[in-house]
Design goal:
Largest sheet: 3 strands, parallel
Oligomer: single chain
Number of strands: 3
Structural class: alpha/beta
Number of helices: 3
Strand order of the largest sheet: 1-2-3
Strand content: 15-25%
Distance between the termini: 13 Å
Order of helices and strands: EHEHEH
Shape: flat
Length: 83
């Protein structure tokens, strides 16, 4: 599991970042990454939906977005209980 906090990083080019993400995608999968919880408050990202679509395309994992760290953590805990 991975929590990525983007709540203070609004000046990012997701398409450029995807080039880097794609380089490590297979390694992350090989190492067992199954879930990514992204903390990305919609109010800070006017292009929120597009950013999520771009990020989901780069990772071979269940990527979900959340408004708060607590919500992200709760989701990961619940997902780990299901397995």
């Amino acid at each position: 599991n991975w929590i990525s906090n983007l709540s203070e990083l609004s000046d990012r080019d997701e398409k450029i970042l995807n080039r880097l993400r794609l380089k490590v995608r297979s390694r992350l999968k090989q190492d067992g990454l199954k879930r990514i919880a992204v903390i990305m408050p919609k109010a800070k990202y006017p292009d929120y939906e597009q950013r999520i679509i771009i990020m989901k395309a780069a990772y071979d994992a269940d990527l979900r977005s959340f408004e708060t760290h607590e919500d992200a953590k709760d989701w990961l805990i619940e997902q780990n209980r299901i397995i």
